[in-house]
Amino acid sequence: MTDTRRRVKVYTLNEDRQWDDRGTGHVSSGYVERLKGMSLLVRAESDGSLLLESKINPNTAYQKQQDTLIVWSEAENYDLALSFQEKAGCDEIWEKICQVQGKDPSVDITQDLVDESEEERFDDMSSPGLELPSCELNRLEEIAELVASSLPSPLRREKLALALENEGYIKKLLEIFHVCEDLENLEGLHHLYEIIKGIFLLNRTALFEVMFSEECIMDVIGCLEYDPSLSPSRKHREFLTKTAKFKEVIPISDPELKQKIHQTYRVQYIQDMVLPTPSVFEENMLSTLHSFIFFNKVEIVGMLQEDEKFLTELFAQLTDEATDEEKRQELVNFLKEFCAFSQTLQPQNRDAFFKTLSNMGILPALEVILGMDDAQVRSAATDIFSYLVEYNPSMVREFVMQEAQQNDDDILLINLIIEHMICDTDPELGGAVQLMGLLRTLVDPENMLATANKTEKTEFLGFFYKHCMHVLTAPLLANTTEEKPSKDDFQTAQLLALILELLTFCVEHHTYHIKNYIINKDILRRVLVLMASKHAFLALCALRFKRKIIGLKDEFYNRYIMKSFLFEPVVKAFLNNGSRYNLMNSAIIEMFEFIRVEDIKSLTAHVIENYWKALEDVDYVQTFKGLKLRFEQQRERQDNPKLDSMRSILRNHRYRRDARTLEDEEEMWFNSDEDDMEDGEAVVPPSDKTKNEEDIMDPISKFMERKKLKESEEKEVLLKTNLSGRQSPSFKLSFSSGTKTNLTSQSSASNLSGSPGSPGSPGSPGSPGSVSKSTSQMAAITTKGGLVGLVDYPDDDEEDDEDEDKEETLPLSKKAKLESS
């Protein structure tokens, strides 16, 4: 059987001065060779791994608190604690620590000499202990000075604490407090304030246990009312006895638990309200006070959690329709505070806590409470719900999906939450913001579980879009039936902004669910109505929603946007914004810039074809001109499909490839069937078989020559573009047998290129009809003599020779195809 005496929890103090649970295990002490000394070892009870290995240093101050805690600091900002299951185990390890340090196990703290000078250390160690003045009214000033002078020195603090503890000095001081109050001796009361405040800063658990006992705590609070810096004195005792009332919503039968609740409330009050805010130097001096409250809360939650009768009665009364409203409010407030206390628990304990509440039926109870009219009760229920969602969203999702099989959509828990968000009466929508955050947590796929048998994401999102999404979007759809929002007051705008924020989150994190919903319900068109709102933040929310959709680069969304002309509200808002340089202006330009940079072809064409005239005058950024250029490049590629192939050939010849790869590719091309030719491809008739080999130009040279001529005539083309308003990016190139060239636009040269008698086109087919279609896409280019490309690679000459040799042995049809390319 496991030795429960040695069973401990290991705690470390984090940056927020809260204790973190590092695990449960069994403690032992022994010599560790690596650390060269006796050490404390804690091994995890789950897997035997080492949770703690801490050398017992002679100069480290160890404290024993509340009979089952040992606390110490290993570094300046690294505090450790062992919480024992049994007092006997704590005493046993404490004796080992004292034995190593040579201390008396009867003390509750070992000495710390870190900050002492050698002379002061020698003087203090030479004296057996600190002698306190007799506890009399006329010596209060002397006592106050002694306490104040002892605080800077750790050793003197220790000796002072021992003296106060051993002589029962605190109770004597509290007796004098009564005398001073009866005599209205303000000077004495001010000294007592300084003395009691100094005792708090001694940071000693044994003294706290005396001060916070039932008989002393109210007198201690009384002493702290007489702060010399405050006039008149504060009435803390009056508040605690008359104003603050302890309500037992469910009778607590355990007197120890009841006393612990009273004590914790009062000590928390002392820490938060009575003691002055500690300075930077005093903050660490109150660490034991933090620990005292922390472990008290852990103990209270544990004792309540174990009392099944108490929790059963609590939930029975919460859901009982006969319970009156005032009683129900008290029950809800108790449950809220109970959950708040649970935040002090460590993850393992908190998991057990929420499982207990779940088994008791907390979610059905919350559903009943949220359906009530009392705003305060609903607010408290929302806070409880937030604890549950933040800790275990999967538990909430599972309950909601099970509930949907039995109840109508209107009374589902998640729909109640959405309705409370929509109907929040707070002008600032504080409650709605909180509820929206909870909804986002529930629909976040990042915290959804995936198991072998089922996927929570698929199931829950399917449920949410079927049963809940229509409730969430109802205010949006109701307010966007016209070209402008039907209601445009501030509170409505805030609510719609919250809904849009959640929808934007869904677009980013959900896939086909939100896509189907947006397209089927035409949500984006309705959202863009809000671009006309007088509230800039709402218009920007609508724009952000559309920007998120465009950012996905999903052609389903893009087709939907183009079909419904959903850039119109954005362009209209951009033009209405005028020349103002603001967030709206920048956000709209950024959206169009994204389309340009990412080269989203469908949207680029849609924008230029439908909105170019409205945007062409915007010249303070190059975004729209860049979009126009992208559009023209697209048209050029469409009108000249072989241009892309030429470019690819150019790219391929710029880099040397394996000869075998090149031969394989040529073989595949030459072996292709004649039937694979695209429509409109020019076929050279058999009569051209006799054409001189020198007239066949290498595809690269043809492309480079064409590019050279095109660049040389760029100004003329641009001029024609400005005059005609729209210029096709496709051109006809016709070379004569010499160096004479003609460059004409498509519109002016369509007849010439198709006429049999065009100059510079020897060997053109006899039938004009067979040429017109092909020449409208690509000019027939022939050369005599050696035209040199802009980039000449010597290695290519050999390949050209090889190609010409091959050509002589080619079948007639294959040769014709090569020439026509």
Automatic annotation (TrEMBL):
<dbReference type="InterPro" id="IPR011989">
    <property type="entry name" value="ARM-like"/>
</dbReference>
<comment type="similarity">
    <text>Belongs to the SMEK family.</text>
</comment>
<feature type="compositionally biased region" description="Basic and acidic residues">
    <location>
        <begin position="703"/>
        <end position="713"/>
    </location>
</feature>
<feature type="compositionally biased region" description="Acidic residues">
    <location>
        <begin position="669"/>
        <end position="681"/>
    </location>
</feature>
<feature type="region of interest" description="Disordered">
    <location>
        <begin position="726"/>
        <end position="821"/>
    </location>
</feature>
<dbReference type="InterPro" id="IPR051137">
    <property type="entry name" value="PP4R3-like"/>
</dbReference>
<dbReference type="Pfam" id="PF22972">
    <property type="entry name" value="EVH1_PP4R3"/>
</dbReference>
<dbReference type="InterPro" id="IPR011993">
    <property type="entry name" value="PH-like_dom_sf"/>
</dbReference>
<dbReference type="InterPro" id="IPR016024">
    <property type="entry name" value="ARM-type_fold"/>
</dbReference>
<dbReference type="GO" id="GO:0005654">
    <property type="term" value="C:nucleoplasm"/>
</dbReference>
<dbReference type="Pfam" id="PF04802">
    <property type="entry name" value="PP4R3"/>
</dbReference>
<dbReference type="GO" id="GO:0006974">
    <property type="term" value="P:DNA damage response"/>
</dbReference>
<feature type="compositionally biased region" description="Low complexity">
    <location>
        <begin position="745"/>
        <end position="758"/>
    </location>
</feature>
<feature type="compositionally biased region" description="Low complexity">
    <location>
        <begin position="767"/>
        <end position="776"/>
    </location>
</feature>
<dbReference type="GO" id="GO:0030289">
    <property type="term" value="C:protein phosphatase 4 complex"/>
</dbReference>
<feature type="compositionally biased region" description="Acidic residues">
    <location>
        <begin position="793"/>
        <end position="807"/>
    </location>
</feature>
<feature type="compositionally biased region" description="Polar residues">
    <location>
        <begin position="726"/>
        <end position="744"/>
    </location>
</feature>
<dbReference type="InterPro" id="IPR006887">
    <property type="entry name" value="P4R3-like_central_dom"/>
</dbReference>
<protein>
    <recommendedName>
        <fullName>SMEK homolog 1</fullName>
    </recommendedName>
</protein>
<dbReference type="InterPro" id="IPR055236">
    <property type="entry name" value="EVH1_PP4R3"/>
</dbReference>
<dbReference type="GO" id="GO:0072542">
    <property type="term" value="F:protein phosphatase activator activity"/>
</dbReference>
<feature type="domain" description="PP4R3 EVH1-like">
    <location>
        <begin position="5"/>
        <end position="101"/>
    </location>
</feature>
<feature type="domain" description="Serine/threonine-protein phosphatase 4 regulatory subunit 3-like central">
    <location>
        <begin position="142"/>
        <end position="633"/>
    </location>
</feature>
<feature type="region of interest" description="Disordered">
    <location>
        <begin position="669"/>
        <end position="713"/>
    </location>
</feature>
